[in-house]
Each structure stands twice: as C-alpha cells, then as structure tokens.
Amino acid sequence: MFHTITKGTLVYSVADSLSGAAHGFSTRLGGVSQGYLASLNLGIHRGDSPENVLKNYKIFADALGFSPEDTVFPMQRHTDLIRRVDASHRGEGLFRETEAVCDGQITNVPGVALVTFSADCTPILLFDPVRRAIGAVHAGWRGTAAGIAAKAVAAMADAYGCRPGDIRAAIGPCIGKCCFETDGDVPAAMMAALGDEARAAVEPRGAKYHVDLKALNALWLSRAGVTNVDISPDCTACLCDRYWSHRRVGDRRGSLAGVIMLK
Question: What is the pLDDT of residue 46?
C-alpha cells in the first residue's frame, strides 16, 4: 500500500513494498519555489533558481533520510537505457552536469540516492532487500512500450545477482487511465510489445483511446518475475493541485521526483 506523509507543509508518499530503503515520491507541496513553480519544484531545468531547487531538495532529503549531495540525476530522454551507478556519481545533476542519457538507474552502494523525474509519466522504484540493490525508473509511454521496468529488473539481476522474486517495486503517482487520452499509436505500441494481455489496459473511447500506464508497467514487472508491487492510486492530471501535470499545464510546471537510497 501507499501512504501519504505530511510534515509541516511537505507532503509526499511512501510504499510498504519499499520498507527498509529510504524512499519517497514527492508532490508539488512543501517547498520554497514561487509563481507557477510553487512550491516543491525538484527539476533543475524548469526555470527555477538553483538556490530554490537546492532548498527544496534539502527539505525533501531531511524528511526521507538522505542529503542533496547523495543524489544522482538521470538525463531522461524516454529511452529504455539503464545505467549502473556508484558513489563516484553522487552529486551528478544537482551539483554538476550529467551527460549520461538514461531513463533508469541501479546501484548496490549505500548512500547513493537514485532520482527519477516525472510530471505525468510513471516513476517506478525497485528494492531488493536480499542482495541490497535498488533501482529508479522513468517510464513514459515509449519507455513503457519498450519494457524499461522489466529491463531494470534484468539489469539488477545481471549486475548484482538479484532474483526477480526478491525484488519489490512501487509504481508511483502518474497520469491515470481516466486522463491519458491518446491516438492509436500508443495502444498499437503496447499491443506490439505485450500482445493481447495489453488489451485490459486500453479502452477505446470514440476515435481516441484511454491507456493505463500503471497496469502496463505492473504487467511488465510481473512478466519479469516481480510479485510484490505497490501501485499509487493517484492520477497526477486529476490532482494537479497536488502534483505537477504536463498534460494539464504544459511546460509551465515543476518536476516531481521519486527517490530511493540504501540506508
């Protein structure tokens, strides 16, 4: 299950499946940013001041149990690329630029806080308490069709000897089937990747389709052998007073972050 945590003005969520790892999924509430970025913007390229973003990370980090210096940012480009990171990557993104394009990161090093960004796309955090390894994944519809969640599980197995059955997953707040209206290209990509099993996550509505990215990513995880999966019930587009939603406001928005770190 997911649980909402409120500390002062800060609001975020945690998942039972990730218990034992420092983790959390942010909302847009509880930071210091102003204007259309008010208030907890965690994106460094959204037009915010670096000082505000750093303060926002300090607020979020203090609540979750990591430090801003621990963070490792991906350069997300809707790929299915998974990067293995270690302590040498700490600070990439927030304190110095990262040139590594990827939409998933994995590590088995304590004190490395993996970050994944979203504003309707699906954030997925992974935790193996046996082999002590974690992952953070950004799955837009292209990444979902490419099976990036399953590829992250495979990468953890290859790099750290994780058994998929030991890996726990949390699918965070993202745009729901209620609001993710698409043309035919999106369901076609899902059917091509997942076959008939994808049909349950696709609902025709007139000339358009509504697609359930949470269910599709859960299906990928199940196929990869992950059985312990928590799924956030929240739709970022429905709850745009709580979450950043690109579908609702376009580029005049901040970024949400899912963060996980081995203690």
Answer: 97
